[in-house]
Amino acid sequence: MNKVRVILFLFVIIITSNLSYSQLKDWGSKIGIRANLLFPENDFANLGFSNNDDFSFDWYEFSFLNQAFFGLAATKSLEVHLTFGYGTYSGKAYFDSPENSYGKYKTTIIPVNLTFRITPWDIQTWNPYFYVGAGMMSYDLTTIPTNLPGVNNVKAAGWTGFLPVGTGAEFPLSDNFIFDLSLGGAFSTGFDLEGYRNENDKTWESYINIGLGLTMVNESCSSDRDKDKLSRCEEEKLGSDPKNPDSDSDGLNDGDEVLNWRTDPTNPDSDGDGLNDFKEVIELNTNAINPDTDEDGLSDGEEVLKYGTNPLKPDSDNDDLSDSLEIIKYKTNPLRSDTDGDGLSDGAEVNIYLTDPTNLDSDLDGLSDGEEIIKFGTNPLDRDTDNGSVDDFTEIHRETNPLDPDDDIIQMNVPIVLEGITFATGKAEIEPQSEFVLRSALETLMKNPDIIVEISGHTDNVGSENNNRTLSQKRADAVRFWLIRNGIAPDRILAKGYGEDFPRVPNDTDENRRINRRIEFKRIR
Questions:
Q1: Any domain includes 21
Q2: N or C, where is the chain less crowded by C-beta within 10 Å?
Q3: What is the pLDDT of residues 239-258, one digit of tens each?
């Protein structure tokens, strides 16, 4: 009885001290078999846990108990097992010496009991447990000792109470099978199992057992083997792997994907925008289930991987044009508010001034759109804002008013420098970049069909005077021929080379010599 009290006390201590540290188990139900080797404890010689201690094992006869059980998980750390058994309880019947033997005893036992198994720890590789139970046991004495001293009041067959207790551990073999190793014992509430009972007998028959078992498990629907906060049934419904906390290997826990982010745990890129869910949720803070978080018409993946724009901001450069409009419609730079560098934002050019945000000079008059709007007040879409026959660029450089048509009349014998007409050093071939200024002169002549002009060439003082005069004549002729090829009558244009005779500034620096190398346009009639 004292041993029973100790075992019950230990059971209470285990329950109260470890239950709070237990974790959910992965099994919903179990069935299994167990083979136990028994060591009887009774009035005769035994291992020493009752009376007549004898560690010689001379008294031992093979005893066993085979069991089958069905178990259910009751709580996080408690399983309830219904167990059925069949075995024999055997030994040699002597008290002190085998020389004074009374023969042997052998009893068939059939226990049925309810066992409570406590699994207080959550360990990945094995599952230690404690158990205690209660039930009934049928017994039948098939061999009874003879010539025993005193009065033997043994009852040869019947039922007795049965109280198993012990410890053990489970070791997983596969997803569905477990190896079980146990060490324990059991008390009966009777005095007859060894075939000897007298009026002074107060010792319950019992045994010590060592067991080996095989358990087949049925995993609980609510189990969470991979600890991802999703049950097995939830994962099966979603199609995710209940054994892998990150089924799609995107860096996010399946439970977090479903419960926090609403993403697909089986697809690393839930919204198909080219960015995996982890990058969107953790690094970029974009919406992993919306391919276009800022709704600018570009997918988050395109913004991040292709264009470098901000997927959280529809207008990355704050120019009042959405990133998609800039990229798809206007071909402007969504990361630069002034794509053409003319001093006007792309949004202002498109929405207010209607100029080309990819061309700093929309009307090709030689003045940037920003200069025309901000500095001169001219129309960036009209080369000749005042329609006075002289383009805005020419008026600005000859210091007439591009907003007043009255001063556009070309004055007699007043030379106008055609800034921008250039030639290779020592040559008379017009360079391609001169085309714009030539067309400005061409437009002036076409708008004023009655005038006759002189195209004059001028050089610096480098080289001989004759060579310079010849070179200047060739350059003036080249400009004259260009105008003729583009529709001006030959008799309206004279060409004259003056060499170094009429410098605008002294030829004492490189910059001054550059200024003196020029083509002038002058009305002579």
A1: yes
A2: N
A3: 999 989 999 999 999 999 99
Q: For residue 188, give the 3-state DSSP assignment.
A: strand
8-12, 98-102, 304-308, 371-375: which has the minimum mean pLDDT? 8-12
Strand 64-73 with 27-41, pairing: antiparallel
Domain boundary among 168, 188, 219: 219
Query: Of 103, 165, 98, 95, which Cα lies nearest the Cα of 131?
Result: 165
Q: Are residues 190 and 262 in the same domain?
A: no
512 φ, ψ (degrees, to nearest 5): -65, -40
Residue 114 in domain: yes
Of 122, 110, 128, the C-alpha closest to 180 is: 128
Number of domains in the chain: 3
Report the SS3 class of residue 11.
helix
Q: Give the residue among 159, 46, 49 at the shortest CA–CA distance from 108.
A: 159
480: nearest Cα among 415, 430, 414, 408: 430
Q: At 156, give phi and psi (nearest 5°).
A: -70, -20
Identify whether residues 284 and 431 lie together within a single domain.
no
Say how far apart CA 188 and CA 190 lie, in whole Å: 5
Task: Give the tens place of pLDDT for each residue, 40-58.
Answer: 998 888 876 656 677 788 8
State both tokens at 180. Answer: 């079980």
Say if residue 93 is in the same domain as residue 212: yes
What global pTM score does this model have? 0.55
Name the residue among 216, 217, 213, 218 with its Cα closest to residue 85: 213
Q: What confidence tens digit (pLDDT) does each residue in 452-476 have?
A: 999 999 999 999 999 999 999 999 9
Helix ranges (H only) for 369-503 are: 369-370, 392-398, 435-447, 465-485
Segment 146-203, tens digit of pLDDT? 888 876 788 999 999 999 999 999 999 987 899 999 999 999 998 889 988 876 767 7
Instruction: Name residues whose C-beta falls within 8 Å of residue 346's C-beta, 6 or more positions apart in sequence.
Output: 317, 319, 320, 321, 326, 330, 332, 333, 336, 337, 338, 339, 357
Rounded Cα gap, residues 424 and 514, in angstroms = 12
* Rama region for 58: left / alpha / beta (φ>0; ψ in -120 to 50; rest): alpha
CATH number at residue 161: 2.40.160.20
Per-residue model confidence (pLDDT) at position 151: 67
Q: Which range marks the domain in which residue 26 is found?
A: 2-219
Q: Within a domain: residue 354?
A: no
* 365 found inside a domain: no
